[in-house]
Specification:
55% helix, 166 residues, globular, mainly alpha
Length: 166
């Protein structure tokens, strides 16, 4: 028997007849935040594949997206700056761009301070970078993984010559 096809009819069931999501804690439709997280994954994949321009575009778009939570916008900005650290942007410019992220109210402040320290070192101001790393190591709530990494930086770059400087 032939099946009649109605032009313009959707092969999907009407929304009212669709069963509820299997996970009641997961929204039926993606949220702006979950879409943003997908864009983070895409940007990371682009960077791993060597498409730095594409990754940078994604991170910059996320950083400017007012629909994302502030901490995700800040993280996108941090990643965008990290991608530009090996490029032609002068270290002083990147240090200045990181400055707003070093505010104590910002979730990623310690990461921003770490990047600033490394940029100072890269720019030839080794003592400032060492002092910043030493100051970060004094933070009592610093995550263990970051503390470990900062100790590795002190093994590579040394400690401040004048401990009172930090």
């Amino acid at each position: 028997a032939a099946t009649a096809v109605v032009v313009g009819a959707s092969p999907r069931p009407a929304a009212a007849t669709m069963p509820p999501p299997s996970n009641p804690h997961r929204p039926a439709f993606p949220t702006t935040e979950s879409l943003g997280r997908g864009e983070f994954c895409l940007a990371g994949q682009l960077a791993r594949e060597g498409n730095i321009g594409g990754a940078l575009d994604n991170y910059q778009t996320l950083a400017l997206d007012p629909n994302l939570p502030d901490e995700l916008q800040d993280l996108a900005l941090l990643y965008a700056i990290m991608l530009r650290m090996d490029g032609d942007t002068p270290a002083e410019d990147l240090i200045a761009e990181l400055e707003p992220l070093t505010n104590p109210a910002i979730t990623w402040r310690w990461s921003a301070l770490e990047l600033q320290a490394l940029l100072h070192i890269e720019n030839g101001d080794v003592e400032t970078g060492r002092a910043m790393i030493a100051d970060l190591l004094l933070e009592p709530n610093l995550p263990v993984s970051m503390r470990r990494r900062l100790f590795q930086w002190t093994e590579i770059y040394g400690v401040p010559e004048d401990p009172e400087q930090s």
